[in-house]
Write a structure and sequence with these properties.
Length: 266
């Protein structure tokens, strides 16, 4: 197995950490460290994840949640570490990944329609200069219908509400037909209806054995939707089941002070 080309050190040995029985993890992050000049954003993070799971990445502001996703996808360089999916560097298989960045990183004034945005999700499969195939058009239609946005297909993306915009980006991710889905703070600035649709879609994806990673900062009721959690505070505080991660000690280590969370969450 190889390390990703962005990393200075390679860690070819794969260790199975958390999963029960003999099930090998599909995605492994090994000793991942990221610096922004002098700022150590992430230090030595290792997690093992299984397909078919909805994984929440939690931690306080500045904990390195977005950094983790971006470094996993090779969007920013890591100082060290390796990220493998099914035994190969994840960055060499980005056509199997759908990534929706934080809404603050998207230019919502860009003059494109809803349909254009969703079809852009197909360019990795079809190439920029290929005509979109009937398969791509069918997948885009199905994705827009799934998130309840087909009737808006000719609208400019700038003319939608925050929740509608997030649903369009969810549709784009669905149209990609990826195996690994990464969403960075998808619930920011959205309505309850959109949040419900998003969790429904995430759960459907896990039933199709996809791996769904969601950066989230809300330790409220919605945390019960996640199969597993990764709790960060510049390094890994804990990962695994809600019961394992949501202990007062771990929350204290991540957030400091006394953290009260939804009582049935664990
Ligand atoms: N491009 C950058 N240049 C310099 N420092 C950065 C950059 N991006 C992030 N950082 C710093 O790295 C650390 C981790 O940031 P990151 O955005 O990953 O945290 P986060 O957990 O996603 O935070 P939030 O919940 O506020 O989005 C923070 O201290 C942040 O200020």
């Amino acid at each position: 197995m190889q390390s990703t080309p962005f990393f200075e050190n390679s860690y070819p040995r794969l260790t199975v950490h958390t999963q029960a029985l003999d099930i090998s993890p599909n995605l492994t992050v090994e000793n991942l460290s990221v610096k922004y000049r002098a700022i150590e954003a992430l230090t030595d993070v290792s997690v093992s994840l299984q397909s078919g799971r909805l994984v929440g990445i939690f931690g306080p502001n500045g904990a390195g949640k977005s950094t983790l996703i971006k470094a996993m996808l090779g969007l920013i360089p890591a100082v060290s570490g390796a990220v493998q999916y099914e035994g190969k560097a994840l960055v060499d298989q980005l056509d199997r990944v759908a990534y929706v960045p934080q809404r603050s990183q998207i230019d919502w004034s860009y003059p494109v329609t809803v349909w254009d945005v969703v079809m852009m999700g197909r360019t990795k499969k079809t190439g920029w200069f290929q005509r979109y195939s009937s398969i791509s058009r069918r997948l885009a239609t199905q994705a827009l219908e799934r998130v309840g946005m087909m009737e808006f297909r000719d609208r400019a993306i700038s003319d939608l509400s925050g929740g509608q915009q997030q649903r369009v980006f969810l549709a784009r991710a669905l149209a990609q037909q990826a195996d690994v889905f990464c969403f960075d703070e998808p619930f920011v600035g959205i309505d309850q209806k959109t949040q419900t649709i998003m969790f429904d879609v995430f759960k459907e994806l896990t039933r199709e054995n996809k791996l769904v990673l969601v950066v989230n900062h809300d330790l409220g009721e919605s945390i019960v939707n996640f199969d597993e959690l990764i709790l960060l505070n510049k390094s890994l505080v804990a990962s695994g089941s809600r019961q394992k991660v949501l202990t007062q000690e771990n929350l204290q280590q991540a957030y400091g002070g006394k953290v009260v969370f939804f009582s049935d969450a664990a």
